[in-house]
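INTERNAL AUDIT FORM
Audit reference: QA-55
Scope: verify that the stored structure record matches its stored sequence.
Auditor: D.O.
Record contents follow.
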Amino acid sequence: MKLTSRHLAWPALLIALALMPASTDSVAQSQAELRLAAAGDTGAAKAKPKPLPARKLVKKKAQAPKGPPPTPAKVLFGAAKAPAPLAARAIGFYAKGCLAGAKAIAVDGPTWQVMRLSRNRMWGHPSLIALVERLSKDGKEHDGWPGLLVGDISQPRGGPMLTGHASHQIGLDADIWLTPMPDQRLSTREREDLAATSMLADDRVSINPKVWTEAHGRIITRAASYPQVERVLVHPAIKKAICETKTLPREHLNKIRPYWGHYYHMHIRMACPKDSPACTPQPIVGTDDGCGKEVDDWIARMKRIYAPRPPAPEPKIAVPKPKPKPKPPEITLADLPAECKMVIGDTSPPGPSPVADVTKPDAAKPAAAKADDDAENAEPVKPAVAGSKK
C-alpha cells in the first residue's frame, strides 16, 4: 500500500496536540492542588474553619414566692397582756430591746397613782418599780411633794410600742408627771382624760412662774440623786430654772439633761442593773453641771424656732411642696436582740409571725392622751418661710 501525504498528516496532528500547553484554568487548578498538598493539615485547617461550640442552656433558678412581710415588733409586743415568766432582766438598748420578768407597779399606792391605765404600760424591771415607789415616799417626806402621778413605764414584755415612745423598751424608763398628785383617788375615766400640766409660758421657751414652784425642782433633783439613776430628762426651760434656783442641791445637776418635749413630765432612766448582762448601757454623763453654755445653747435654739414671724407675703411663683421623707422601716423581731424572741414567746423559724387578737390602738384616743404621745419625742420643726430656699 502506498502511503500518501494524507496518511502522514494524522500522526503529525496527534503529536502536535500532545505537545500543546495546558489551558490557563487547568494550570491554576493544578497549582492550587500542589500548594494544598505541600501545606498539609495546616492548609486544610485554614480552608475549613472549625464550627463554634454549641451554647449550653442554663436553667434559671425558680424564685420562691414572696410571703407576707414580717409582723412589726410593736404589734407583737403591744399585743402581750402579761409579762414573760422568766427571770427579771433588761435586754438590749433603751430604744431597741425587750423586758423579761417584768413587775407592775400597783395602780394605787400610798404616795402615787398610775395614769392612762388603758395603755397597760405600768410594767418595769423590779429595780425600777422599787425606785419609783421610793421616790414617791421620799418626795412626800423630804421635798413637800404630795405624791407622784406615774405615766408610762413599759409594756408587759417591753419592746417597741404601738404609739408614743421610741425608748421605754427594756423596763428602765419611767415618766413622772410634774402635776402633783391630788388628795382624792382619781377614777379610771379621770386617769384617761386628765391633761398633764405644762410648765412652760406662752413663749414655749421659758417657765411659767404661776405653775412652776421650787418643789418641782426638789422632786427632780431628788430623782437625780439616786445612784441607780443615770439620767433625768426635762425640757430645757426646766433645766434652766433648776440651774437658776440656788437653794436646790447641785451635786447631781449633771444628770438632769435638757431634751425636747419633756415640759409636763420628767423622764427617769436607770442604769443597766447587775442582773441584766444583755443590757446595753449609754455613755455616762460628764461631770459638767450643764448650767452654762449647754443649756444656753438649747434656749437660744428654741428661741429661734418659736420666735414670732410676720405673715409671709404671697409668693409670686408657686413653690412646689417638698417631698415627704420616707418613713424608716418598721422594727421587726429580727432587729431586736435574740433573747427577745424567747421573751415574746415566738419559737417559730425566722419569717412572718402572725399573732391572733392583736389589739389595735383606739382611733378615738382622748386628746389628752394624744398630747402625751406628741410631746414625748417630738422635736419642733422651724416653720419654713414662703419663698425661702430651705
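Auditor finding: record pair retrieved intact. Residues 138 and 206 are 28 Å apart (CA to CA).
Action required: none
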